[in-house]
Amino acid sequence: MKKIAVVYWSGGGNTEAMAQAAVDGANKAGGEATLFRVDAFSAQDMKDYDGFLFGCPAMGAEVLEEAEFEPFFQEAESRISGVSVGLFGSYGWGGGEWMRQWVARVKDDGAKLIGSLAVENTPDEKGLAECAALGESLVKALA
Asked: Residue 69 belongs to a domain with what CATH number?
């Protein structure tokens, strides 16, 4: 069974709901997914997992959350080359530019990007189903 870490930061609960849906989807597909708030996971912990789903909403001027998530992700980037990764998060303005930049960054790092998902504001049933599908896709990519 492939081990998956779902690592997220959420300020208002939207990205947290997306993270839980992704965990549920990965577990349903036969993976062993564990949910982590970013402050409870470090780049050193990555050695224990086969794949990752990273979640962070758009903040400020369309950037990743700068106090906790960005510092973690900068360290994690050196460990994702050749690794299957998915990205998700919510936004309330800007049309998702932060996700396009994050996708380009992950590709430049050499990760195997299995998908990305940006949901405007609070995820509805369709958005949560897409998060679950992202989790399922990661499990299939690791098979």
From this structure: 3.40.50.360
